[in-house]
Amino acid sequence: YEGKAKRIFACENPDRVLIEFKNNATAFNAKKRSEIKGKGRLNCKISASLFELLELNGIPTHFIELHSETFMFADKVNVIPLEVVIRNIATGSLCRETPINQGEILNPPLLDLYYKDDQLGDPILTEERLKLLDILTDMQLEEVYKITRSVNKILKEYFESLDLLLVDFKLEFGTNTSGKLVVADEISPDNCRFWDKKISDPKERILDKDRFRQDLGGVLNAYEEILKRIEKDSSNAT
Predict the structure, then answer these.
(1) Which of 5, 134, 186, 218 is the most exposed place for a label (fewest CB within 10 A)?
(2) CA-CA distance, 129 to 175, in Å (whole number)?
(3) For the chain, first and last CA: distance in Å?
(4) In this structure, what are the phi and psi dihedrals at residue 71, rounded to the nearest 5 degrees?
(5) From start to end of the chain, where are the E strands?
(6) In Å, what is the CA distance from 77 to each residue of 21, 74, 142, 176, 185?
(7) Given pLDDT bands bounded at 50, 70 and 90, which one contains residue 233?
(8) How far apart are CA 224 and CA 187, in angstroms?
């Protein structure tokens, strides 16, 4: 399977896949496209580090191990067509669609569900619509909520220690061949928003795909900065 940012390959082990992270950059449901050399390597390494962090904290993910700088082994999963977005600070679509001001702290964090379908524009879902679509059970939905809030707590505290604000992020879920619900896809600056805590300028502080969306430049440098802080933290821990 090939998506906008990754290619998925079958393995000899039918319960595993090999995921390649591409250099493609897309925004606005792929209406805006580009290729940024080196982005795939950064997203792969960042995602691997964050999946390892989550696993250490008891969060089930599809991640198994890195194969190379741009490939990782993962459990084969049946992907649930659901995007789960959790917001700690108001920005982006939330500010466009509501009177909530940019930069407002959301306490408790806001959790939104979207139907994963580019042709439909990934529409926001109510729980009633979710039941109508019948894409996961009530028990799975409760587990999705619980895992997402736990992931937010873990990552928010972790990035605080790296002088980064975790503004919001998107999670995707799937069930592995054992039927277990796991966090899938990736966790990277492609689907997280990061602001540098020490920079007040609203554009300069951005260290994520908003630099591509808003034509701010320096996309690769921003992703490299995220990886650098993660690796520095890892080396200090050892």
Answers:
(1) 134
(2) 21
(3) 37
(4) -125, 140
(5) 6-10, 16-21, 24-27, 32-35, 63-66, 71-75, 77-89, 105-115, 124-125, 164-176, 181-184, 192-196
(6) 17, 9, 19, 4, 10
(7) confident
(8) 15
CA pair distance 153, 158, nearest whole angstrom: 8
Model confidence over 122-146: pLDDT tens digits?
999 999 999 999 999 999 999 999 9
DSSP state of 2: B
CA atoms within 13 A on the CB side of 216: 19
Phi-psi label, residue 122: left if phi above 0, alpha if psi -120 to 50, beta otherwise: left
Largest CA distance in the chain: 52
DSSP 20-82: EEPSEEEETTTTEEEE-TTHHHHHHHHHHHHHHHHHHTT--BSEEEESSSSEEEEE-EEEEEE
Structure tokens at 186: 């990736």
186-208: pLDDT as tens digits: 999 999 999 999 999 999 999 99
The token duo for 141 is 């939905």
Query: Helix or strand or coil: residue 226?
Result: helix
